[in-house]
Amino acid sequence: MIDILISALSSGLASVLDYLSAHVLTCLVPAFFIAGAITAFVKKDAILRYFSPDTPKPISYGIASVSGTILAVCSCTILPIFAGILKKGSGIGPATTFLFAGPAINILAVIYTAWVLGFDLGIARAVSAVVLAIVIGLAMALIFRSTDVETLKKKAMAPSVAGACEEEKPRWVTPAFFALLVGVLVFGASPLDWTLRLGIVYVLTLAIAVLLIYYYDRDEVTDWGLETWDLTKKIFPILIGGTFLVGIIAFFLPPETFQPYFGDNSLAANFLAAVVGMILYMPTLLEVPIIGTTFGYTTGHMAAGPALALLLAGPTVSLPSVLVIYRIVGAKKTAAYVALVVVFATVAGFVYGNGMLLI
Questions:
Q1: Nearest-CA neighbor of 286 among 170, 116, 31, 88?
Q2: Are 116 and 292 in contact, with CB atoms under 8 Å apart?
Q3: pLDDT for res 167
Q4: C-beta of residue 306 within 8 angstroms of C-beta of residue 273
Q5: What is the per-residue pLDDT across 46-103, written as a single tens digit (0 to 9) for each?
Q6: Which Pfam families match (predicted)?
Q7: Distance between CA 65 and CA 101 in Å, rounded?
Q8: What is the pLDDT of residues 167-178, one digit of tens each?
């Protein structure tokens, strides 16, 4: 019994070392800085105000579908924001798009997926998340048109408030800043010779420092640091603990256990993966080791289609989040949303797994 326990704990420790030793410095650390910068320097209010039912659809759904890159949150964190924008007069369609896209397009999770599970799957996750968020939002708006009618009536009776957004920096500064951060991430994890990589990262870091010194004040830099630290302390301990637990589970339930269910790209396998994703609660980033280790994607025991279906459904819905959504929008809207997520995650996984989606 003691030998089994020791072996299980060793499996958990090996899982942590396997995932984190190879990816912390080259992937997670730069990703945390990028996510912190997005949170600190991109104004959420300027984005959320475009979610009204009478905002042109390309604008409202376009912004909502990529909003997760700004927030870098999981499904549990997106729910109070979802409730807040509905109360402020958002249309049900853009709000639902935002609800799905928030955790699905999480910049940390997408980067981690690409680095650990493969670049193709990471890109497929990002592209599919944006497309599905828009499709699901449009479907919800079509099904519950009366909700938007009531929202517009309330908006017409409410006083309008004009707002302005000052541009304090040249427009090129922020894009250049993020491009340099992404450059650190890309070159730091590249297969180039380590001396060349170090030199490139050093130059990019100096360029970032120059932008911070000349174009950002001390409060902004401090805010960036605090946001980065806040994300790190919230996510990193859960990732370590969760990866350790995943390793223990993999000892008792090896990936071969799940191969009969997720080992091919059939419609049934993709549907089952989407349903499992809808039930399980997976904190952000933890879906990567779960799919890679527990279900065996990295060892070839899980097919690409079910992996994508689980990546799309898992972070966006879970039993706890479904209960909260029910309290916010009621039973009918919750049931419709969950059904749409499962159906479209299944379709996306089936299409990708069978080579019909060229990424």
A1: 116
A2: yes
A3: 53
A4: yes
A5: 666 777 777 888 888 888 888 766 655 556 667 777 877 777 777 888 889 988 987 8
A6: ArsP_1 (PF03773)
A7: 5
A8: 567 889 988 998
* Statement: residue 163 has pLDDT above 50: no
Q: Locate tokens 């479904």: which residue?
A: 322
Cα separation of 284 and 112, whole Å? Answer: 10
Give the closest residue to 307 by CA, choosing from 288, 323, 286. 288
The torsion angles phi and psi of 264, rounded to 5 degrees, stand at -135, 175
**What is the per-residue DSSP string for 124-152?**
HHHHHHHHHHHHHHHHHHHHTHHHHHHHH
The set of residues, in sequence order, having a beta carbon less than 8 Å from that of 1 and lying 6+ positions away, is: none
Q: What is the pLDDT of residue 166?
A: 46
How many whole angstroms separate alpha carbon 77 and alpha carbon 97? 15
Query: Coil, helix or strand for 197?
Result: helix
User: What is the Cα 251 distance to its own chain's centre?
Assistant: 28
State pLDDT tens for residues 6-38. 877 787 777 677 666 655 556 667 777 877 887
User: Looking up tokens 């799940």, which residue turns up?
Assistant: 258
Residue 244, Cβ density class (10 Å: 0-12 exposed, 13-18 middle, ≥19 buried)? buried
Residue 88's Cβ-count burial label (10 Å; 0-12, 13-18, 19+) is middle
Percent of the chain with pLDDT over 70: 82
pLDDT at position 52: 76
The pTM of the full predicted model, rounded to 2 decimals, is 0.74
Distances (CA, A) of 162 to 49, 54, 97, 165, 167: 11, 16, 25, 10, 17
Nearest to 348 by CA among 266, 270, 262, 287: 270
Buried b / exposed e along 161-200 (16+ C-beta atoms within 10 A)? eeeeeeeeeeeeebeebbebbebbbebbbeeeeeeebeeb
How many residues appear in the chain? Answer: 359
Closest to 79 measured CA to CA, from 59, 96, 54: 96
**CB distance 278 to 357 below 8 Å:** no
> In whole angstroms, how far apart are CA 160 and each of 88, 91, 94, 229?
12, 17, 20, 37
